[in-house]
Amino acid sequence: MDEKKKKRIILIGRSMSGKTTLCQYMDNKELKYHKTQTIQIFNDFVIDTPGEYLERGSLRGALTVTAVEADLIVLVQEADEEGTMFPPGYSSTFAKPCIGIVTKSDLADERKIEYCEKCLKMAGAKEVFVTSSYTGSGFEELMDFLEKFSEK
């Protein structure tokens, strides 16, 4: 009996970018603020990482090590963020497929959302999904993608 291993994703982004809220939304849990202090795994599927691991250069190695357990890199950026933490080509650090998610799209205008999409694509995201946990928009496309990715 060869049971297929469930594919995992890792969420990487700044503090307060919406990574944990994404986990709660995808898991159909009540949305409530929770500061992620350590790496957490939701349903043996989503690896949620603290934003400080990206924000502090001395901790970035923890992302590289943890990403070994993931099959898909997910770069998360909130729509109203000024600038980006992801340099061009950042996803090449992991040598795995990469997508981007723009969160909190209900808080930004189209220009800011397009800027975030551009930043995520420059960082190496092959596809970018624009979501809002508040309105629920964008999740159908994201979940469809993740389901198809898991079937590969």
Automatic annotation (TrEMBL):
<dbReference type="GO" id="GO:0006576">
    <property type="term" value="P:biogenic amine metabolic process"/>
</dbReference>
<keyword id="KW-0547">Nucleotide-binding</keyword>
<dbReference type="GO" id="GO:0005524">
    <property type="term" value="F:ATP binding"/>
</dbReference>
<protein>
    <submittedName>
        <fullName>Ethanolamine utilization protein EutP</fullName>
    </submittedName>
</protein>
<dbReference type="InterPro" id="IPR012381">
    <property type="entry name" value="EutP_PduV"/>
</dbReference>
<dbReference type="Pfam" id="PF10662">
    <property type="entry name" value="PduV-EutP"/>
</dbReference>
<dbReference type="InterPro" id="IPR027417">
    <property type="entry name" value="P-loop_NTPase"/>
</dbReference>
<comment type="similarity">
    <text>Belongs to the EutP/PduV family.</text>
</comment>
